[in-house]
Structures are given as C-alpha cells and as structure tokens.
Amino acid sequence: MLDDLGNGIVLGSIIAVTSLGLSLVFGVTRLINFAHGELVTLGAVVALVGASSSASDPSGLGLPLVVAAAGAVAAGAAFGVTLELAMFRPLRKRVGGLALLVITFGLALVLRHLMLIWIGPNPHQLPLDAQRQHTYLLFDLTPRDGLLVLISLGLMVAVGLFLLRSDTGRSMRALSENSELARASGVDVDRVVLFTWALAGALAAAGGILYALTSQVSWDMGTGLFLFMLSAVILGGIGTAFGAMVGGLAIGIVAELAAGSSLLEGQADAKVIVALVLMVGALLIRPEGLLGQRERVS
Amino acid sequence: MGVACLGAAATVAIGCGGAGSSDEGQALKLGAILPQTGDLASFGPPTRNAAELAVKQANAAGGVHGSDVSLSVKDEGGSPETTRAAAEALRSDGVQAVIGAFGSGSSLTVIDSLTQSEVVMVSPSNGGEEFTDYPDDGFYFRTVPASSNEGMFGAEEASKRGLKTIGIFAQKDSYGQAYADAFAKQFEADGGTVTTRVDFDPTATSFDGEVKRVAATDPDGVMMVAYSDSGGLIARAAYESRLLERPWIIADGIKDPKFPASVFPGHEDRFQSWVGTGAGEPEGESNADFAAAYEKEHGEPPGAFSSNTYDATWLAVLAAEAGDGTGRSISEELPKVSGGPGEKCSAAECLRLVRDGKEIDYVGASGEIDFDESGNLTTAYYVIWRFDGKGGTENTELVERDLG
C-alpha cells in the first residue's frame, strides 16, 4: 500500500500541475478548454524534440534536457497567448460559450493529429537513462520521481503565492469570483485573460514534461490525462486554482490506491474509473467541490 | 471478348462478370489488414513487403485465371475502430481473401463480418486460442500455430533453465492470455510455481505498481507476454525495481530488433537475461529462396512474420487458381493446396502445376504449412531467440513439433 501511495503522490503531483492551467482559464474566461490535454502533450513533444540527439531522431536538436524543457515551457506560454489572440478573443465577441466549448473539442482533435504527424504513432522516451529506486521517507521512488514531486510542489507554491500576492494574480481571482464587479472596479480584462492563457500554457507544458519523465512521450498522452484533469478541477472546485491543486493530489492518490487494491487489481482503466467516480461523487454530494464556494444562480 | 463470353455463358453456368475474368474463374482481388500504426506498427513493413513480394512473383508467373492479382493493404491500426474500417473498406471493394489481421484481438473484431461475407481470412500471425475452433464456416486460416503451444514450449524452457518460481506479466487480450494460460499450466505441471500473475491492460501507460507487486514475491524468473509499448514500460519499471536482472522468458510479440535501443538507449545489454520463444521457420530451399528474393526486392533480410505472410499470400493465390476464385472456392481449396497428396512445390512452381490441373502440396518459407479443416497448422516450428545486444535479434535454436 505504501508503494501505491508513493505512486499516487507522483501521479497526483502531475495531475495537480497540469490541471492548474485548466482551472485558471475556466476561472477567468468561463471556458472549459477541452484542448488542454493537447497543450500538455505539446510541452512534452517540444522538450522531446529539443533534447533528442540527432542520432536517434533526425529532427532532434540535442540540447541538454533542462534547456529543452525551459524552451518547451516558453513555447507553451507562447502557444497559449497565440490561441487567445488568434482564436478565443475574436470568437468570444461573436459566439456564445457553448459554441466555444465545441470549438475547443475541434481544436483538441486538430492538435492531437498534428502531434501524430510530428512524432509518429509510437511512444518515445526522453533521452534519460532509467534509474534505480531508493527509499525516501518510507516510499520506494527513483530520484527522478522524488525530484518531480519537489518541482510540482514548488510550482504550486509559486502559483499560489502569485495568485495571493501579486496584482495580476489578485485580478485573476477577482475575475474568477465575480467578473462584473471586477470589470467595474477597473481590472484590465483583456490583459489579465492574455496573461492567464500564457500561464496556463506554460503550466500545461511543464506538467507534460513532468509526466514524460515518469512515462513516455506519445501523441495522445495528454488526451488520456484530460479526464483526470477535469475530475481534479471539478472535485477541487471549479473556479479555484487551489482547488485544482488539492483535487489533483487527491485524485492521484485515491486512483493509485484503489487501482492497486485487490478489488480493482488488473482492471483496465481502473484509475480512470476511480477518477470519474470521484468527479461524479463530488458533483452529487458537494457540487462546489472541496474548496469552491456555492454560487448564487439567481 | 464480349460475344464469345455471352456464347460461353449460354452453355456454361459460369458467368462473365468482374474485371478480366476468364471461363475458369475470377481474377483475384486480395486485401491485407496489417499494422501501419499502433502498438504493432513495427511488424507492418516486414509483413507488407512479404505480401507484396508474393503478389509480384505470382503476377510474373501469369497471375490468377489470366489476370494480375491485385493487393490492397489497409491499416489495422491500434484500435478496433481502425481495423473494422479497414475490413469494411476491403469488403466493399469486393476482395475474395484478406491476409490478416496481424493481432489476434484485431482479427476477432472483424472475423465475423468478413467470414460471413464469404471473404477468406488467412492470418500470418494470430496466436489466440479462440481461432482453433471458431465457427468461421471454414473461412479462417492461419500460417502460425496457436500461442498456447508456444506457451507450453516457453514453460519447458523455463524449467530447463532451473527456474522453480516465476512471476507472470500477461497482456489482457487473446494473444497474451492464450500464451500465459498454457505457460502457467505446463509450468505447474512440471513442478514449478507461479508466484504472481499480473494480467495487464495493454493501453496503460504505467506499470510501476504491477512490477513492484511481482518483485515483492521474489521469483526466480519472470515470464512476460506483451507488445513493445507495454513491454518497454514494464522493462523500465523492472529495472527500477531491480527485477530486470533475473532470467525473463518472453513471447515473440516483442521481437522487434529496435526494442532494446528504444527502451535503454546505450544500454541494450540490459536485456541479456531475456530468453525469447516464438514461431520459427525451418531451413530449407523454400525458405532460402524466399529470403534471397526478399533481400533482393527490399534491400534487407526478411523480418518477423515475413515468411508466414509470404506463405499466407501464396496459398491464397494458389487456392484461387485451383478453384473458380470466389471466396467460398478459396476456402475449400486452401486445405487441399496446402497439404494434399500432390506434388511438393513452392511459389511460382506451384502456380504452374495448379494451372495445369495438378494436385499440389505447398511447401512454404515458414514450414510445411498443412492446414487441417479448421484452418490450423498440423506441424509447428519454434525458435529460441534473443536480442543480440547489437540492434538485432538472433535465433539460437529451432524445434519442430507435431500438433496433435
């Protein structure tokens, strides 16, 4: 059981980081971006191409992984900004929320297949050797997994502090809680939304790289993770980024514990089932999520 | 052709329909469902090349019923949807026979729709147990033995190497379960113990928990039946848990020469302890001729399942020529041309004999290839193989078995 808990913390950290961006975009623009999983994939793919040596992959740049990863995060931010400026900003003025949602579905399909064309159907490894497990604080993890958890924690703390302390962060939270009031009190909505997309893209890319460190890079890796991300956001509370962090960790831990238990051992998709059950349970029992606040509908 | 055709039709019951048909039968439209994308994509080129080679040779020797054989290869893909789409496309194209599918799971999704439309399936690689007596009305054949036999063979190898306890990783599909069930049964019958068995979902992206579970039982060795994607993830997790160093018996779904480098680039020697079992092919003239022709045509030696695909394609051609070329006729002729009382021959030589109306016994590149009425082989060849640590695989031993 300790093993599953350890794996759960690793998975939960990844889900927390990747779902942060999803939650932030929803909070500020009220859009659930169904292409968020593909932003995660994009980050991992860019890091892969940057770090692969040209011996194993003709288009590889052979950069050190840290450099490639930094580049991927920057690319993720840039891509988020591009999506907002080129797609969502102009469309938001002309079509309603439901249409935008459907557009993100389409965007997801297009991005997924672009990834397929780019890196092919087979999974790839980041150019890192496998490591041995050691015991850290009761858990058997590889040094890389341990580093991953620390980095995720660092990112969450950084984003949390940013949201609480900085002006832009406070504006983001204000827009999230009550957009009319926020607008009325002078928040530059366009600028804040643009920044949110940049942050979401960067976080998704970072999450993708972290995910690739534990597993592999494949064209549909983000798609599989999306259900976990959505469940985390809903469980934690729509509209609160802190909720996504808590929700992500919770889902990761519970999913691994349940999948490892004798009840669900060997079941295909056991982890996804658990995540979805948690999401539905949250909606039924406490729709505002663990950290959310009840909204007045009228 | 038109007037003579009508005249012939008046006196003979065979119609003159279809492109380029003659009085004796239809031209052969062959389809193939082989993996271009998905988990098994690495097996795509060696099988596709072999099928194309057989068709090219057949056409050079005059084709079937006076016309060229056409071959349409569709992607089996990594999902049932893709396979079904491939089968549907071929069916509406009017093919009489399909070489494929490659994966047992894939074949199961389309066997009913194809065989019920009287399209013959000849798979070069399906090992699943279901196919042994599947109600396919005689329309399904395979040029490899069932994996269960291979599983028994694997268990014998495990016992031979002194392994008393073993942990099992078995893919949760027709192929994996057939192999693992037979392995476990034989291993335990020979006095061994299976400490844990993990039946895993091939689409999963992480196997840390499963591997730790097996490692915790401290087995002498491990048996794994998996395709490359899962196999790679399991291998990495096994390295982390220090399970990889023990002897591993593996099935041939992972017999891709690029596998070691894709999992541990620069450390391919980590697979030294892996012992592979798989379908084999006997040395012989037929095999040597095929290998030479393949290398000449494609610039590299044949790959895994190439010879089986070559034989599957050639047999379909010969069965089409022997009868009137319809799906039903092909299904009836296949057992006869594969192992009848006639003259032993290979490839184009057989085609000439069949055209002359003689009975033949096809000798394939992958073995004798004699089908029984259920479309199963009666003799099987197995190999012990390994990753040679230099980017290739090598067969270290060949065994021939009569399948009762």
Q: Which descriptors apply to this entry?
A:
heterodimer, A: 298 residues, mainly alpha, two-stranded antiparallel ribbon, 11 helices, globular, B: 404 residues, alpha/beta, 7-stranded mixed sheet, 5-stranded parallel sheet, 13 helices, 14 strands, elongated
3D architecture notes:
The complex is a heterodimer of chains A (298) and B (404). Chain A has 11 helices and 2 strands, in the order ααααββααααααα. Chain A is mostly helical. Chain A has a two-stranded antiparallel sheet. The radius of gyration of chain A is 19 Å and the shape is globular. The model of chain A has no long low-confidence stretch (mean pLDDT 88). Chain B has 404 residues and is an alpha/beta fold. Helices cover 41% and strands 19% of the residues of chain B. Chain B has 13 helices and 14 strands.
Averaging pLDDT over every residue of chain A, what do you get? 88
Give the integer mean of the pLDDT values of chain B: 87
Interface with most residues? A-B, 31 and 34 residues
Tell me the strand percentage band of chain A. under 5%
* Helical percentage of chain A: over 70%
Structural class of chain B: alpha/beta
The Cα radius of gyration of chain A reads 19 Å
What is the beta-strand fraction of chain B? 15-25%
Shape descriptor of chain B reads elongated
- Taking all Cα atoms into account, the compactness measure Rg of chain B is 22 Å
Characterize the main sheet of chain A: 2 strands, antiparallel
Q: What is the count of helical runs of chain B?
A: 13
Low-confidence stretches of chain B: 1-23
- The total of beta strands of chain B comes to 14
Strand order of the largest sheet of chain B: 7-6-8-9-10-13-14
Q: Give the class of chain A from helix and strand content and strand pairing.
A: mainly alpha
For the record, give the distance between the C-alpha atoms at the N and C termini of chain B, rounded to a whole number: 50 Å
Shape of chain A: globular
Q: Helix fraction of chain B? A: 40-55%
- Give the termini distance of chain A in whole angstroms: 46 Å
